[in-house]
């Protein structure tokens, strides 16, 4: 019998791709998602790729009783907890919503994990916990700065809270700090489909192309080679596969805990991403330079050595491939 893994937020961007990777490695994902920032059509996309049905419950992780019923129905070998709000801008406008949702859902997951003795947890965190690093690349020991947004604060608080509960009840957990996830499964059947206006560079760029409007580049006066911000863009399927590796590590290291940065280990500027998108897709991207966006940091990219050494994981796909796959997915939507 294949091991059942609860994937909260499994209809979302990273969650859906992780469900595909779990199936490829012989696990059975069980999806919980309240569809607040995802579409049920993503479940159908996952099922088309893996060739079988996936159990899906339209439940909000902040509601303990319905969530408890799911834990009574299944015996989970692990949990991958994605379910959280993730818009930096929205979190600034509505911090309470972010604290309530992101911490409330985590608290319920940890409570039920302890109640039903689920042995392994993989927690979705973010490079945003570092703030503006003094030095790049960033390792897991790079000291945190104060969070640049309530979204980032909920990731810092989430990591600390998991650590505290681990001291009381040492079930295994791995914290994964994502850098900038982009791209889509090469089939074009699943990808990034934010509800409403996206915030992140690649979905905004794609939306602007379809609207025949120029992309706003938020500042070209940063202290970087071309003046635009630098980030570590990681293909979402590389990120998905890292979650499977984290589960495998937990299975081999029961009741242990670790933290990993997940990135390519190199940075690309906004203008470089635009240039790569144009050349890999044969499309011109109209853009104009706008004022800096509040809260943006100049540059951050990962030192992924620890994940390579302990998880046996490293990225295998390039930024250009991710931009090609993102555009291919978009073309399947129209
Ligand atoms: C990247 C660069 C913008 C839009 C955040 C979170 C991180 C993760 C990803 C969830 C920046 C520039 C963007 C646009 C632009 N969150 N940009 N024009 O802010 O690095 O990271 O999202 O998984 O935790 O912190 O990502 O894609 O918003 O911005 O010029 O229309 O693109 O200024 O330099 P960010 P982003």
Show the helix and strand layout.
Elements: E1 4-8, H1 13-24, E2 28-32, H2 41-50, E3 55-57, H3 64-73, E4 78-81, H4 88-93, H5 95-115, E5 120-126, H6 150-168, E6 172-178, E7 180-182, H7 201-210, E8 215-218, E9 230-231, E10 233-235, H8 236-252, E11 257-262, E12 268-269, H9 270-281, E13 287-290, H10 305-311, H11 319-333
Parallel strand pairs: 1-2, 1-4, 2-3, 4-5, 5-6, 6-11, 7-10, 8-13
Antiparallel strand pairs: 9-12
Helix pairs in contact: 1-2, 1-8, 5-6, 9-11
UDP-4-deoxy-4-formamido-beta-L-arabinopyranose binds next to strand 7, helix 7 and strand 8.
**What is the count of β-strands?**
13
What's the CATH C level of the domain at 4-183 and 233-263? Alpha Beta
Task: List all distinct small molecules, including ions and cofactors, that are bound in this structure.
Answer: UDP-4-deoxy-4-formamido-beta-L-arabinopyranose
Helical proportion, percent range: 40-55%
CATH architecture of the domain at 4-183 and 233-263: 3-Layer(aba) Sandwich
Q: What summary fits the major beta sheet? A: 7 strands, parallel
Mean pLDDT: 96
CATH topology of the domain at 4-183 and 233-263, by name, is Rossmann fold
Strand order of the largest sheet: 3-2-1-4-5-6-11
| Distance between the first and last residues' Cα | 39 Å
- Rg on CA atoms, Å: 19 Å
CATH superfamily heading of the domain at 4-183 and 233-263: NAD(P)-binding Rossmann-like Domain
Would you identify the regions where 5 or more consecutive residues have pLDDT less than 50? Answer: none
The helix-and-strand class reads alpha/beta
What is the helix/strand order? EHEHEHEHHEHEEHEEEHEEHEHH
In terms of DSSP E residues, the strand content is 15-25%
What is the general shape? globular
Helix segment tally: 11
């Amino acid at each position: 019998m294949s091991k059942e893994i609860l994937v909260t937020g499994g209809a979302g961007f990273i969650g859906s791709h992780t469900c595909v990777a779990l199936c490829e490695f012989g696990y059975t994902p069980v999806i919980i998602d309240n569809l607040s920032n995802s579409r049920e059509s993503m479940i159908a996309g996952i099922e088309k790729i893996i060739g079988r049905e996936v159990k899906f419950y339209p439940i909000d992780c902040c509601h303990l009783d319905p969530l408890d019923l799911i834990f009574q129905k299944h015996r989970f070998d692990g949990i991958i907890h994605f379910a959280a709000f993730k818009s930096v801008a929205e979190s600034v406008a509505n911090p309470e919503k972010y604290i309530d949702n992101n911490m409330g859902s985590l608290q319920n997951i940890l409570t039920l994990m302890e109640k039903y003795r689920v042995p392994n947890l993989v927690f979705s965190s973010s490079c945003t916990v570092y703030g503006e690093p003094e030095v790049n690349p960033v390792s897991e020991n790079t000291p945190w700065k104060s969070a640049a947004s309530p979204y980032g604060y909920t990731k810092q608080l989430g990591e600390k809270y998991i650590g505290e509960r681990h001291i009381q009840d040492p079930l295994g957990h791995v914290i994964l700090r994502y850098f900038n996830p982009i791209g889509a499964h090469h089939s074009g059947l699943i990808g990034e489909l934010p509800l409403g206006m996206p915030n992140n560079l690649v979905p905004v760029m794609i939306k602007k192309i379809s609207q025949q409007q120029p992309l706003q580049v938020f500042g070209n006066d940063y202290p970087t080679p071309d003046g635009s911000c630098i980030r570590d863009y990681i293909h979402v399927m590389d990120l998905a596969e890292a979650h499977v590796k984290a589960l495998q590590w937990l299975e081999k290291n029961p009741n242990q805990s670790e933290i990993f940065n997940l990135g390519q280990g190199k940075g690309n500027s906004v203008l470089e991403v635009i240039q790569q998108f144009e050349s890999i897709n044969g499309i011109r991207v109209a853009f104009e330079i706008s004022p800096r966006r509040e809260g943006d940091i100049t540059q951050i990219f990962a030192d992924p050595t620890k994940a390579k050494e302990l998880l046996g994981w490293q990225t295998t796909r390039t930024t250009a491939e991710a931009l090609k796959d993102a555009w291919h997915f978009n073309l399947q939507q129209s």
